[in-house]
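We store sequence with structure; for instance:
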Amino acid sequence: MNKVYNNRAWWLILPMLLLVAFTAIIPLMTVVNYSVQDVFDAHTRFFTGTEWFKQMLNDPALQAALVRQFAFSLTVLAIEVPLGIGIALIMPKKGWQASAMLILVTMPLLIPWNVVGSIWQIFTRGDIGLMGWGLRELGYGYNITANPVDAWATIILMDVWHWTPLIALLCFSGLRSIPDAYYQAARIDRASKWAIFRHIQLPKLTNVLVIGVLLRFMYSFKIYAEPFVLTGGGPGSSTTFLSQSLTTMAIGQQDLGPSAAFSLIYFLIILLVCWVFYTAIMNMQKDDKNKEG
């Protein structure tokens, strides 16, 4: 009997395909078009090939911004992932305490990014901010507008406060999905808390950690609003990240060709690093399964 395939279901996803094409593919191809041209005005442009890409890759300012970006992203990941797991482990699992804790943990995620920068800008002021005033009263000359170390530490602390709840919520959901039978077997074997975490909880958190690490890397690697509002990229260019450099080039200087090439390089770096993270974590998961088998 010959099967008859009905392809009319494709019409159901056609609106979504059109939406994706309008919001992602068409703008991306526009950027690709600008990246190989020197644009003078709406009617005057010349083909430049890969000239803008070479110029961007050899730009010392952008190379320095790239180093700062990687340093920031790796630092916040190294802090937020273990901290988020720790918070998830100590959160109540049942009752009104669990609901109250979830609300408290989620609150920083509800604040818009530019408002986060404004909150911390006020918080760190030496005259009216609790943190800035407190550190100065303790004898430390805290000043994010003049001291790059203070600016970096504040931005990292701000990001940890803002985004660690995301990791904590993902890990909490992963821990809640573990059947009680695993814990009962561990109690029978008199396993320690570390053994339970290493052999039961951590393997079960691998999938949510993959999502959390990828989301946090992407968000941290394109961070813009918070440091721009808090420090403006200063002092000097010590907290100027790639997104701010790209915005200045594209909007402030109207260099459409170089900024388009820069944005494509930016996009490919994020894509490559996310692929490396994903591949490494999945290989670790396979190795653990093979050892268990």
About this structure: The first helix runs from residue 10 to 35. The chain has a mean pLDDT of 87.
